[in-house]
Amino acid sequence: xxxLNSLDRVLAILDLFTEDRLEWTPDELxxxxxxxxxxxxxxxxxxxxxxxxxxxxxxxxxxxxxVVEMDYLMRKSDAxxxxxxxxxxxxxxxxxxxxxxxxxxxxxxxxxxxDCSIPDPLSSYxxxxxxxxxxxxxxxxxxxxxxxxxxxxxxxENFDELRSIGLGSSVADIAExxxxxxxxxxxxxxxxxxxxxxxxAAPVFDTARVPVASLCVTIAGxxxxxxxxxxxxxxxxxxxxxxxxxxERQRAEDETKQAxxxxxxxxxx
Amino acid sequence: xxxLNSLDRVLAILDLFTEDRLEWTPDELxxxxxxxxxxxxxxxxxxxxxxxxxxxxxxxxxxxxxVVEMDYLMRKSDAxxxxxxxxxxxxxxxxxxxxxxxxxxxxxxxxxxxDCSIPDPLSSYxxxxxxxxxxxxxxxxxxxxxxxxxxxxxxxENFDELRSIGLGSSVADIAExxxxxxxxxxxxxxxxxxxxxxxxAAPVFDTARVPVASLCVTIAGxxxxxxxxxxxxxxxxxxxxxxxxxxERQRAEDETKQAxxxxxxxxxx
DNA sequence: ATCAAAATCTCAAATATCGGGATTTTGTAG
DNA sequence: CTACAAAATCCCGATATTTGAGATTTTGAT
Lengths: 269, 269
Known about the structure:
CATH class of the largest domain in chain A: Alpha Beta
CATH topology of the largest domain in chain A: Beta-Lactamase
Strand content of chain A: 15-25%
Largest sheet of chain A: 5 strands, antiparallel
Structural class of chain A: alpha+beta
Oligomer: homodimer
CATH superfamily of the largest domain in chain A: GAF domain
Number of domains of chain A: 2
Radius of gyration of chain A: 22 Å
Number of strands of chain A: 7
CATH architecture of the largest domain in chain A: 2-Layer Sandwich
């Protein structure tokens, strides 16, 4: 059936649960997915037992408790979130702004932690909000620091959008802009995501110095000048670098601990 | 292999990601799960494509972006969370307390929204934190309002724990306590979950008047007396009932809208 | 550029999956 | 409490899919 294997077919069920539609009855799912009744019920039972779906009698199926638990797990145990949070607060205390920590997942960019020091933020950035892939300071702060090969691939894939932002009219042009970002250490974008808002972002690196996240301040354009964008940028890239270092240290510690646990009797005879 | 079907085997991978261990390399997973190399890689690819897992080169696999996104979706679109939040704030403004909205998932009880008005809460109740199933006011506020049959089954399943709390020495005894809770409209528990903390909780109902969640105030025992437990209880059960009503209204609206969309030309000729 | 480790591919055997239809369970209404 | 309709599950043979050993390619570190 439609070229996918059964695993994909089960997981395809999850794709139907969107912002517009968080509840589906089995009949609606059958209709939509084209699975036979026993098959669908088998799939649903599996997903329900795994906690990824939940069913309320007469109200169909919804996303299940496991999702909430797993996100809790990630929030609580994700070293990046743990190390990042104090720095987000540092930034929001210093500037009237929103500060975000945004993870780079290869094909997706997702806010994983945020803090805010202004009463009515022009736009909100809660955890889990997907961010545009090729637009804004966050995006560029990551793209600019990717290995050349990967960066060029990404520029080509998003060429139309990048050009429409005004970053250049050729791949080489845009790559040159990226080089400038790399030299500066942080990316700045004015009104690219939200009109009137300036974004200032710097990358967080993993051990191999590959960007894995971005630390970002978004501040009203009218205020950005007063606080000096270069001042903010310097601080953001400094804090981002500090997170990278903390992650690195953490990783080293974990490794040591694991080696001790994994082979406690492994000292040579 | 081990009596499970392949869907279960794929989803079993998720079970390994716990608080203590959020990163697994393929080799470790092979060892732990006993799958062959190609099979495991196939499974991992599927999960990764679905976004449930993410891999960092040289750092193994972790839970993926999809989890974060789905939780965001649920937070944003869950009618119960939306309707509940203002009432949580109402409670935290009125009392120095934590206020929680906790969903009942049949086998699990999970905090889905929380608010807090005291600087250093004795214990924190963030979204996603699992709550004890048979202990505390939340648990009892739901149990007491379940259909008799289901309630008795649950009492039997958790008999030892319920007795150790001092709710009675026989199923009949405990059922009698539940009857009292039902009559009162809310449950009170002193120090059952956290020493020195009083929990006051009332159920939220679905259309069929089956409890689906609980609204709860947790307040320091030393403060509870001053604010009068019965006063708090009355308010909590009143607000819980209000959420139930809002859910019911919402549901009716959704149904109307869906009927219009689903069969826009269905008016009789 | 070189090499080891990690990830993917190949392919035939075998095993688990699928779906039509009967059957049981659940929830509702009388 | 009983009866009924709807929802969910079970049965079982045909069949397409999954599986794993080993070869092969890709990746990433030095």
